[in-house]
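Subgroup meeting minutes
Present: P.N., E.W., G.H.
Scribe: E.W.

1. P.N. recapped why we're keeping a running log of single-chain structure predictions: easier to compare across weeks, and new members can see raw inputs and outputs side by side.
2. G.H. added today's entry (309 aa).
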Amino acid sequence: ASDTTPSATTTTATATATGAPHAGVVVDARKQEKRKLKKLKQAKEPEFGEFFDMWESEEEYETSTYSFDNTEVKLTHLGAHLENTYLIGQMVWPDAEVLCHYIALNKEIFAGKTVLDLGSGPGLTGFFVAKFCKRVVLTDLEDKVVSLLQKNADELEDKNVEVAKLAWGVGVDEFLQKHGPFDIVMGSGIVYDSDFVAALIETVAAVLAPFKAERQEHPEDADPDNVYEKQDRGLFITSNFNYRWIRQVPIIDKTTAAVGLKQRPINMKKLVEVVREREKARLARGETPNTFIEDGKNFSTHNVVVMKW
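Output recorded in log:
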């Protein structure tokens, strides 16, 4: 409901104070609401990029250390107090933490590989996978986000980390010529808008095209729990809010079928069980506790999906 909509409590209080309900109170409020809504509709909506210039103060950024399976990542990002603004690209979201847990369980597949991280935001997943892979390129679209990525990369001082700007579906061939090739593509929180889903999957297909002819086959029953990945090249690994993913399923299914990618959802219940057992074992050895999403809540509200040819 709009903030200008008179609540039932307000209307009742007015009626009691005057001794009898006065219809004019409600009518006037409704007229006022309609006038405000009309003004809002007539107002110019700011361009998406303009939101990134609305907050410039350094004090709005904070530095946090995240730990997964005894591997730490320190980075600067916008704080959670701005989660209702349009500066979402500079924040760390639960999708990224879930994907990092999955990477920690499958770190072996990244050894010696070149990884492309899409929609990197402040870079948690990209900087984390950099601990295990040969080289990673972190990408985003908005200049403000790319600048933050570069700042974090400079502080990391890791030679196998690169930062680049990439718009899905635009100039992908040129991007690959400059930064590719890649063995694995990944991204968290990147399935959110129906206008971009098809371009996202088509971009992934273009990046992984060299592996299509190989069509590496691995029986699904090789991992009955569907948590550990056996194939180590030609993969797209992504984590997203369930409700956002479900809303885009028709486009996802249509586009993946068109390009030939197969989807393999990860067993999230088993994933959280495995992570919990590892956490208990570390605590039993007296080791420092790692970052873990409390009670597995975000594991139940998020997914991890692996796509391959």
